Amino acid sequence: MRYPTVNGLVSTAICSGVSTLVLAQRTTGICLSVTGAALGPSLRRIGCRRRACVEYFRTGVNSWRSGILGLWPRRRTTLLIAFATAVGSITPLLLRLLGIGSQRFLNLEVSSLLAPLALLTGVVVLLAQRIARRRTIHSSRVAFHLHKLVESSRNLGSEASCSQPSLSAAAEALCVVIRRLFCELTTDDTVECAIRAAQVDRTVGDGASPIVYSTIARSPGLSKERAATSQPLPANRGVAGFFLGMDDPRGVLIFNDLRTASQLGAYEWSRNDDLFPDAVATMAAAPLNAWFDGRRHMVGILHITSAKRCAFDASHVDYVCLAADAAASALVQVAELSHNLASTRHEEDE
Fold it and tell me: Rounded to the nearest 10 degrees, how much is the dihedral formed by the CA atoms of 50, 54, 58, 62?
């Protein structure tokens, strides 16, 4: 039976100490991320002792940096983990080269086991920290853009009451805000937005619905040339026909293949689909509903598109519905103000 020498014990102690520190730091970070919800109230009480009696925040987009849990997703934590991983991986090899860890302990080469173990542990925890950082920042930014959407909806009505209301200008502003929200939600920079509004087409023949849905606004990423070739959508066809055929037009249609959907009658293929074939690969559509005369009316359609396939799924449905409701509320308010202003001017002319 061989007993460990002094050099072997020193090597084991140093390597174990470094690895223990590395593992402790990783374990602390993982525990904070996993049990954050359970320990959140207690941690907030601890952090509250250093906070001022009055605080002012203009936005919460950087809230992920605050508090004890805010230390975990920061870049300095990433650097600390990478540094600890490097130290924990290199130290056993250096000790072995110096001959300190050349002895065997329990028939295992300690210096040969600790290096890959420390490296593997560090890489796994580093990846976990990066994922936690990305998700935490993503959540804060989504909340920020949601607030911007509600704020824009409110401001559009207030601004319209103080100036010349323009439905198309209000819709364009909403398209920009909605696009930013869904770019953040999907991490997809090709996301765009368009809004169709209900209009009366007096050129339709007898027996056909005079209501059509025409595009009044697009986000800047969609080509401006689309306006010249845009076609109104009849109320009984495509997306409009689907929602108007329901007793309660709500929900979201997600198109993963527009051409196949058009062959099934679920989507109305247009000239712009031929002229700009790469602009839209996936589309989510939701009705813009408003209440007047004691009934729900579909006053428009919200389109959110992406040049990537399968960009939207069920997890985005509630966000699309929220965006549609906020847009409908703002546009109806602007339209009512515009109508009231036109009626007032007509009475003054008379």
Answer: 10
